[in-house]
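Input.
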Amino acid sequence: MLERDDIDCCFTDINMPGMNGLELAEYIQKADNTIPVIIMTGYPSMDNTIKTLKNGVVDFLIKPVNLNQMELCVRRVFSQRHLFVENVLLKKEVEGKQRIEKLNRELMVKVEELNILNKILTDFSATSSSSDVFKRLVDTAVEITHADVSRFFVINENVQSPVEVSCSPALELQEGSTDPAYKASGNTRLSHDDEKNPYGKRNLEHLIMEIASDEIPLLVSENNGGHGIPGNILSATIVPLKIREKVFGVLVTLVERGETRLSEKDLYYLSFMSQNAANAIENLALYENIYENLFATLYAFVNALEVRDLYTQQHSSKSHPVIGANIVEQLGLWEMERQIIKYHHERFDGTGYPEGLEGENIPFLARILSVADVYDAISSDRAYRKKMEEGKVLSIISEGSGSQFDPQIVEVFLNLYHQGKFIPVETPQSKTNILPKN
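Output.
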């Protein structure tokens, strides 16, 4: 009946064969605790009363049962049941809200973790140099852990102590503070009691070298002096950075004041970040090595072409911008770079090559390279001719304004030249090649 019908109330005798009234009440209580159970007995006792209350019985009647008593009992029970059901539903609603709030908090934590991991991946996928990697490493370490300072040290087997290559900006001085350890210059010390305790810095450097040797990250959530860390440092992490299974450097992150303490989650983030930084450094090294070899090869081709006979030189000049553009296209460089190379022999009056572009239809950077290329070509020694006098060089560029060159670019070039903004590059062949000062 409990499984088949909606039961509003149950009257039961206490003495029944098979399952007595107390056992039935217990069963109903487990099946649906909103059904009120009323026990009828001809032999009331304190023991039975206590049992009925324990088994979820809301009331009991003494036989012989008076019908008026039963009506009053039913009214009272249903009134109580209504309140009870409301309380149960309210309790479930509160529990549901609490459960949702808990899940929401857990979800927000997960979202924050994913945002941090995504930030780390994004930061180190866009680096352009090793120094940029080191700088982002220490800045991001402070940002995600809320520590006071982070520093990156390179570990070299030829030196006895770690070499600092990057440091996060230190916190600004608190109002009224004269603590020299915190300066806006961004160059804090390993510990700001070095002058009073010369062993503090050495102890931390020794610990850094130990971590590099063991290759195991260290977390000191609450410094109690057990790791040899100076007393002014409240919390610290030291994370080795490995490239090809060899420790290359160590990231040190410190808390020196306030309530912040570094945690295992912080250590996880810093370890994950260090590994991404290591990958970025390795990729940059590989990239730089490939391009150094590539351009060394290209320079060798240029030198080889310059010593060819005049016919070959002229032939290469009917097609070298296109050839150069095709070469860099195969190297995977940007379309902008390819266009600069392809169009740097176009003339401002439209009589250049390879496509006869005119005026501002020529890419802007190609117009700049056109002036620089001519200056470089006629002011330096080549395999097939000697350089020209400097005055003659400037005269040729001035005369080409409006015909061969963009007049505005020529004007800027000459102004910078006469202002001394270019410096000579000393070479065995020439002392007139120039580079911009800024």
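The chain has three domains: 10-88, 127-172+185-287, 307-436.
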